[in-house]
Amino acid sequence: MGNVQILLRQHVGAPCAPIVKAGDEVKKGTLIATPTGLGANIFSSVYGVVEEVLEDRIVIKPDAEQKDEFVPIEEGSKLDMVKAAGVVGMGGAGFPTGVKIGTDLNGGYVLVNAAECEPGLRHNMVQLEEQTDITIRGLKYCMEICNASKGIIAIKKKNEKAVEILRKAIKEEENLTIHLLPDIYPMGEERAVVRECLGILLDPTQLPSAANAVVINCETLLRIAEAIEMRKPCFSKHLTVIGKLNGGNEPHVYLDVPVGTSVGDLIERAGGIEEPYGEIIMGGPFTGKSTTLDAPITKTTGGIIVTIEFPDLHGANVGLLVCACGGSGERMYELAEKMNGKVVSIAACKQAVSPKEGAPLKCENPGNCPGQAQKCLQFKKDKAEYIIIGNCSDCSNTVMGSAPKMKLKTFHQTDHVMRTIGHALYRRLTVSKQVDQLPNGK
């Protein structure tokens, strides 16, 4: 293992302030940075020595031998232990969990986001299959802390093995149920989980608390249980490595990877890159960002993807359709550049709105999109030959209903990933949105 680089910003809020200096010896679970406002404690994930304290990270040289033991957090109330452990939303959002679950729901709902919506990622399902009991206990702790009367696990129906294991695990639990989701993107979006489970469509500005609920990623539940039962700080991450790797494109799932481990170390662990390749993505195909081999993983990293090479558009004119459910405008421009396209037009999805000036786009109704013919007409008027889209399953379907008629060739921002992992391209939605529930909600 090379040096571990632990970023000081791994969550919503301001960067944490370091409380160690170069030369300090640290152990797994040593507190090394604390919040300066909204945030979460950050811990060393290894035994070693602090080499550098930089503006944005703490660099630790790991010892040759690593022990399993860790420095425990102090005992306290369940909520205080979650806060002390530095648990954040492990699905990618990174909101401090102690803040999220520190509200009284007065008998409301804890909704478990087990959608694992990004194609190719598998670590959530492996957790649910192999660490079922502790995940369920984490859900119960959440319900107790939030004063929720019901827990609902939202999971895609296609994950039959995990669904069956969960069904057996909760069969005696009157207050726990399963809600089956269709296999479309983005069923894991927070407001989509609320809509699917509770039948309530929140405005883009509303939080799940407006529906008397909190939404918790399934790995976050595991870390909550570890904090309460084991007094374990949050310093490790479940993730998936997949793509153009020596040995094939099957997903490699790694549990409890030390935060701060480099992307390159994990890729080598998975067999190494099969040259040539296109790019490396940290995160999922839709919302991930391009990264480098020396970049460190954080508490919110879910995937590392090595892709095939990009197609060459030879300078052709390109229109960009930016969707709140996919890449940002910056990411879309990056993809156009990597495909050697010339951007001549840009538009936002019909349902993408910004809750306030400068804020990221939010979808008015995630996964249920209107037609995009007007946007395609704009691209045609602006003399685009190609469109690059980053839309959800449904919205991609509506684009494909109009773009070919205008002789506009379409690429989805995930195409190079889907081709790499052997997944169907996002074009025409063929999966039914209606999903039958298990008997009695179980």
From TrEMBL:
Residue ranges of every copy of the RnfC Barrel sandwich hybrid domain listed in the record: 4-56
Entry keywords, A to Z: 4Fe-4S, Electron transport, Iron, Iron-sulfur, Metal-binding, Repeat, Transport
GO MF annotation terms: 4 iron, 4 sulfur cluster binding; electron transfer activity; metal ion binding
One family name in Pfam for this protein: RnfC_N
GO cellular component, one term: membrane
NADH-ubiquinone oxidoreductase 51kDa subunit FMN-binding domain mapped to chain residues: 82-225
InterPro entries: Ion_transpt_RnfC/RsxC, Nuo51_FMN-bd, Nuo51_FMN-bd_sf, PR_assoc_PrdC, RnfC_N
NCBIfam families: PR_assoc_PrdC
PANTHER family (UniProt xref): ION-TRANSLOCATING OXIDOREDUCTASE COMPLEX SUBUNIT C
Protein name: Proline reductase-associated electron transfer protein PrdC
Annotated organism of origin: Suipraeoptans intestinalis
Lineage of source species: Bacteria, Bacillati, Bacillota, Clostridia, Lachnospirales
Gene expressing this chain: prdC
